[in-house]
Design brief:
This protein is an all-beta fold. Helix content is 2%, strand content 45%. It has one helix spanning 322-329, and strands at residues 31-43, 46-54, 66-70, 93-102, 107-115, 120-127, 137-142, 145-155, 161-170, 178-185, 195-197, 204-214, 219-228, 254-260, 267-268, 285-294, 299-307, 313-321. A four-stranded antiparallel sheet has the order 4-5-6-7, with no helix packed on it. A four-stranded antiparallel sheet has the order 8-9-10-11, with no helix packed on it. Strands 12-13-14-15 form a four-stranded antiparallel sheet, with no helix packed on it. It is globular, with a radius of gyration of 18 Å.
Length: 336
């Protein structure tokens, strides 16, 4: 374990007292890796759309992309007519969904990873109404682990909608290092070759992330799920192995915030903004999370997935005044 930091949260962002209730197709209510879209005027009658995967007691066979909707971001349901999961035929697991609104085609794009024993396939399915989804297609493949794609669609200098993707290259869970990669696309189907980026988080290994473009500050922000480099642990390097039993060693993870003007040069704060509690529903790992910034009342809103020591996975909600968070991180508001 890493000591007091793992269980002491000095950040103004507080852990949720209890998780949200989110329906899953296999009935467990255990979910991981949320990704949320918010529509000011609603979309197909709903303000919030979320992609996620069930993950009951870390059983990967249930980890398939699913969708739920909400009017307030707290009470969730499956929209009428939608049948989850959206894909269940995979090499290994269908994980790490990322949901985007494509203004050019007026569709929702849902990306996720179909992972084999070693290889990874980035898949895409699309929908014009959120109920009927296209047959998933492979848009990118790689012979190693490629996890947690985070996609942003924004206009480029020519005024055209352009796709930007960040993802993590790794040898597997609890590996001693990882690499943040960046790719671009004009249509969301054909992507550039990956470019390796650096993030100033020494002694931390990035595992999962979410990225958003904050129009108010004209910056990209990234919410990074990280663990300490393996040198602090007393067990050897592992690669991804799916089992039906809980591991006997814990690798605690927490959330860190980073910012970038161009999406390539990132500055992160070494202070975590959210860490596991001592004995709550989120007592083992704070995992991949999704966030929104509300410029009207200066709030950062976070939906985070987490596990307890019984390997039960859920999603919680928390929020914070951004001025307080910026002060904790040492971010100068004027510099944003």
């Amino acid at each position: 374990m890493t000591g007091a930091e793992t269980y002491t949260n000095k950040s103004p962002i507080r852990n949720a007292l209890r998780p949200l209730e989110i329906p899953t197709y296999e009935g467990s209510g255990q979910v991981v890796h949320p990704d949320i879209l918010f529509f000011n005027d609603g979309w197909q009658g709903w303000g919030y759309w979320m992609a996620f995967t069930p993950y009951p007691f870390e059983k990967g066979k249930y980890e398939n992309p699913s969708v739920a909707v909400s009017q307030d971001g707290l009470s969730w349901q499956v929209p009428d007519g939608l049948e989850n999961p959206l894909d269940s035929a995979s090499h290994y697991v269908n994980c790490d969904p990322d949901l985007r609104n494509n203004p050019s085609t007026k569709e929702l794009f849902l990306y996720y990873i179909d992972r084999g024993p070693r290889e990874s396939y980035l898949k895409l399915t699309a929908s014009k109404e959120g109920i009927v989804w296209s047959k998933p297609m492979v848009v990118f493949e790689t012979p190693n682990f490629f996890v947690s794609p985070a996609i942003v669609i924004k206009k480029n200098k020519d005024g055209k909608d352009f796709f930007y993707m960040w993802a993590v290259r790794t040898s597997g869970w609890a590996s001693s290092n990882s690499a943040l990669e960046f790719m671009e696309s004009a249509d969301g189907y054909v992507w550039s070759e990956p470019e390796t980026l650096s993030v100033n988080l020494p002694q931390k290994v990035i595992w999962h992330l979410d990225v958003a473009y904050i129009e108010y500050y004209q910056e990209f922000w990234a919410l990074l799920c990280c663990y300490d480099s393996l040198s602090v642990y007393d067990f050897p390097k592992k690669v991804w192995v799916e089992t039906n039993s809980a591991p006997d060693k814990i690798v605690p993870t927490g959330l860190y915030l980073a910012r970038s003007k161009n999406g390539r040069s990132w500055q992160a704060c070494s202070k975590p903004i959210l860490m596991p509690t001592r004995d709550g529903w989120d007592s083992e790992r704070i995992y991949r999370s999704t966030f929104l910034y509300d410029s009207l009342d200066n709030r950062i809103r976070i939906w985070y997935s987490a596990a307890n020591r019984n390997k039960e996975w859920h999603v919680g909600y928390t929020e914070c005044d951004f001025n307080k968070l910026a002060g904790y991180l040492g971010w100068m508001i004027d510099s944003l």
